[in-house]
Amino acid sequence: MDSNTLDASMAGIKSAWGPLSTEVVAACREQLEALLKAPAAEAWLAALHREGPANKELHRDPEHGFVLLAHTEPAGLYRPPHDHGRAWVIYAVQQGAIEMGTYARLAQPDGSARLVKRGSTLLRPGQVQAYLPGDIHDTRCVTGPALLFRFTERDLKKEDQEARRLTRYVERDGGWTAGQP
Q: Do 169 and 82 contact (CB within 8 A), yes or no?
């Protein structure tokens, strides 16, 4: 099998893998930035552009458990604020533009929590954004179709189904509050 940018990037992440640290996140960011520069003619990338899957797993590391997914999103698609539980993630934009808002969770006197939006970043092709455990963010596709990669240090679907550690927020009375599990 011919080597390609996807294989090389995943091998680079695997070689730098370890417990969460500045160095591990930096190495993963660097490999994802290289992935974004893959030639459009590489079969895996050409297929993504041709097929436009909403969600496709590109790599799952059997030893370390990290996962790389591809998402094709139409302009206007909004994903409300959420965190990734114990996991950290890196988003990488290959095509289109994604606005990512960040939030802080503030305890209210009645014991509930509300979110306060800190700001937002517009990710364009070639850019990556990391979120660490507990970081809260939303996403909105502003230029589509967008093709983005989501690298997660563990299987978030399994994490959510088994441990219920991911928090999704819902809009109530003009503010974001934690949704029901």
A: yes
Helix residue spans in the chain (DSSP H): 5-16, 22-35, 43-51, 156-158
Per-residue pLDDT band at 160 (split at 50, 70, 90): low
pLDDT of 169 strictly over 80:
no
Domain ranges of the chain: 5-178
Query: Is residue 148 within 8 Å of residue 55, measured between CB atoms?
Result: no
Q: Before 145, cis peptide (omega within 30)?
A: yes
The one-character DSSP state at 54 is S
Distance CA 104, CA 112 (A): 14
Tokens of residue 136, six digits: 């809260």
The pLDDT score that the predictor gives to residue 30 is: 98
3-state secondary structure of 38: coil
DSSP 8-state code for residue 111: S
Q: Which CATH superfamily is domain 5-178 in?
A: Jelly Rolls (2.60.120.10)
The answer to whether the beta carbons of residues 29 and 127 sit under 8 Å apart is: no
Residue 2: pLDDT over 60: no
